[in-house]
Description:
Strands 1-2-3-4 form a four-stranded antiparallel sheet, with helices on one face. Strands 5-6 form a two-stranded antiparallel sheet. It is built from four helices and six strands; from the N terminus they run E-E-H-H-E-E-E-E-H-H. Strand 5 (130-133) and strand 6 (136-139) form a beta hairpin. The protein is of the alpha+beta class. The protein has helices at residues 54-70, 79-99, 146-152, 158-163, and strands spanning 26-29, 41-46, 109-114, 119-124, 130-133, 136-139. The protein is 30% helix and 18% strand. The chain is globular, with a radius of gyration of 17 Å.
Amino acid sequence: MKTVKQMKIYQPLSINDKGGRGNQEDTVSPLPGTATSADRTFIVCDGMGGHEAGEVASGAVCEAISAYLNDSDPETFDLSTLRGAIDSAYDTLAERDTTTGQKRMGTTLTLVHLSDRQAVMAHIGDSRIYRLRGGRMEQLTQDHSLVGELVRAGILTAEEARTHPRRNI
């Protein structure tokens, strides 16, 4: 008989840095300071600068995905569950885009879902997922950005990317 080792889930923490902008366009779920060891889904959405109503987009997407996943069984989470949550977010965003007159809203999405048997990660944009293990921080995702693509293609170095004028595109 094969023994399956269960994953230990510790008290969640979040770190948020709004940088030099005066307008905060990030939305997180669960809200900072409210996460417990019973929470299984963690989301960060960052409204895209240069787009209209980035803070509206990040809030709408984060809320829609959270609501959808809160109504689902965390232990049966699979790709169809994730697709349903993202479809729900797209529908919500399209509805708000139409009803508020605010077109071209955009946001990044970074999601981690934990169960006793797996960790599922999904992201789009330049918000990253890291793992802290043995005191070391390891970046698990790659930015979906112009400069990130240029680094992966060997056109820019990582050092050049840090100060590139289009690093946030």
